[in-house]
Amino acid sequence: MRLKVELLWPFLACLLLPLVAAWFAYPDTHLPPGFGVFPPEQVPGVPGFSLFVFILILIPCLGVTALLLFPALFGFKPVPPAPPAPSVRLPFWFWIGLAFTLFFWWLMWKRVTPFGDLVYYAFTPMWWGFIMVLDGLVYARKGGHSFMVDKPKLFLISALVSVAGWFFFEYFDYFTLSNWYYPNGHMAALPHSAIVVIFLLAYTTVWPAVLEWYALLMTCPKLAVRYSNGPKLVLPGSLLLWGGLLLITLTVFWPYPLFWAMWIGPLAVLSGQLIRKNIWTPFTALAQGNWSPMILAALASLCTGFFWEMWNHGSEYPNPLSGTVPPFPTNPNFWIYDVPYVNVIHLYSEMPLLGYFGYLPFGILVWVFFIWAGKLFGFDPDFQGDSPRP
Q1: Domain that holds residue 297
Q2: Measuring CA to CA, how many Å separate 266 from each of 241, 244, 245, 328, 383?
Q3: Of 80, 136, 161, 223, which is the most exposed, with the fewest CB atoms less than 10 Å away?
Q4: Domain tally for the chain?
Q5: 222 has a pLDDT exceeding 60
């Protein structure tokens, strides 16, 4: 019980400190504009492009890119890859998932189809189909082992954790004054209650997708060990915990200069407390020079994000690919970014180039949040069956 309390209070602090800070940051309303509107809507007044801020953020992003592409320059030594697992045939759920993915992808981008209002519900089944595709690839490349097969109960739990985890980020988005928002939720010819359900179902896909991508990347022998013999780094848990809480609090007062902190602050808080309690996280392996868990989790999120942005791009209203304006609004899950200072050089129609670097810490947080939830609620978060132990 004591451990659960010690794990719970930092999470609650992440939720409560922004509210306390908002009481002083917004003396008239005591809450940021648009707070509580769901799905979140645009908050006017976001600063435009700043070359200085763009370069300031670009420099560390280039450093991260160099680390990923040229690890030897940062002291990483080559490690012989393990022999690949004997491959097996693609399982039946791969083909079912592929059919779901392709059908609902076509539906969401085509939009004017004989299936009518089914387009409103396309996003979630498309993503669950894609998750089945990923799991099928892992199964084939890992000799008949995968998340869905080996840990079906945990696989379902990951979907529940995903809902809570993404709500965590939607909550922080209010305090950064809507770095992203959903412009079409109120336009859809659906009651608000139906839109809320559509969003909740969509949230179930985030954690399973990132975890499946991680498992798939780990089936690549050379990639799995590419970052496993590098500089040893011990991260101080207390500094991460208290530094993260301070960063979250300051973001409420300076939401535009600290817009990036939503990806760093919660990660630092939860990771810091897990480290203090001697619970394994992807950061723990850094002490042995093994950066692979951390970096592959980040890359897993980046791979997931690429497909998120691609599929979101094609569901824009009007559809930029077909050039047609359908007789009904876009799917309610469509989102737009309104990031201050760096909202330029878009890959696909909405995500600015530097925004993709936010996926890297997010992927690590997905795994850390899953470990944290497992320790708090009493389930084993080892989704691969072979993760390191403290």
Answers
A1: 2-377
A2: 9, 6, 8, 38, 22
A3: 80
A4: 1
A5: yes
| CB distance 132 to 100 below 8 Å | yes
Residue 154 lies in a domain: yes
Q: CA of 183: how far to CAs of 42, 101, 158, 274, 334, in Å?
A: 7, 24, 28, 37, 7
* The one-letter amino acid at 147: F
Q: Average pLDDT, stretch 22-30?
A: 95
Rg (CA), the chain: 21
Q: What is residue 160's three-state secondary structure?
A: helix
Spatial CB neighbours of 286, under 8 Å, sequence gap ≥ 6: 232, 233, 234, 235, 294
Residue % of the chain over a pLDDT of 70? 93
Residue 387 lies in a domain: no
Distances (CA, A) of 128 to 106, 133, 201, 207, 257: 15, 9, 10, 11, 36
What pLDDT, on a 0 to 100 scale, did the predictor assign at position 389? 43
Q: Is position 388 within any domain?
A: no
- Considering Cα of 36, then 42, then 45, then 50, what sign does the dihedral take? positive
How many of the other CB atoms lie within 10 Å of CB of 49? 13
What's residue 388's pLDDT? 44
Q: Looking up tokens 């047609």, which residue turns up?
A: 324
Instruction: Identify the band that residue 386 occupies on the pLDDT scale cut at 50, 70 and 90.
Output: low
- H-run or E-run covering 154: helix 152-175
Domain-located, residue 99? yes
Least-confidence region, from 155-164, 196-205, 260-269, 308-317: 308-317
Dist CA 58 CA 376 (whole Å) = 37
